[in-house]
């Protein structure tokens, strides 16, 4: 989730140096620092379930599966984001220590406070990444996953999955039942 900070403008270099020393994570866009806040238990469980399934599938295949504490650099000048889950199979990312540059798959777990941003500006930012092939938006309120997949014509196509469906992730050659992503998740009543 994103909390609106006091507007502090920095260069990308200043941000990277400053953020390394902060107790909380901050995203960076257009010179502005955006403080990250915690999510719900359902949000966390969904991200963990997806991460574990991807990690088990990709074990030994030369890919990294990363969660919310891993920073993504869209370009040298930013923006910098913390996706809920991302996968990179790119050689250049294998030795990365602080920033990932070449993901093939990014997943965001939606919350009321971030859904518009995740669907809009953040997806627009992510589409600048040449290696990105799939972008998942995972609901934290119901069993629903939207997968935006880059087709051979360079267009993003949407596939929506619901109760009982199996999700195909072509970027990592993986199929996963939606029920596994939502295993043990209790949806809030509001």
TrEMBL record:
<dbReference type="InterPro" id="IPR008538">
    <property type="entry name" value="Uma2"/>
</dbReference>
<dbReference type="GO" id="GO:0004519">
    <property type="term" value="F:endonuclease activity"/>
</dbReference>
<keyword id="KW-0378">Hydrolase</keyword>
<protein>
    <submittedName>
        <fullName>Uma2 family endonuclease</fullName>
    </submittedName>
</protein>
<dbReference type="InterPro" id="IPR012296">
    <property type="entry name" value="Nuclease_put_TT1808"/>
</dbReference>
<keyword id="KW-0540">Nuclease</keyword>
<dbReference type="InterPro" id="IPR011335">
    <property type="entry name" value="Restrct_endonuc-II-like"/>
</dbReference>
<keyword id="KW-0255">Endonuclease</keyword>
<dbReference type="Pfam" id="PF05685">
    <property type="entry name" value="Uma2"/>
</dbReference>
<feature type="domain" description="Putative restriction endonuclease">
    <location>
        <begin position="12"/>
        <end position="172"/>
    </location>
</feature>
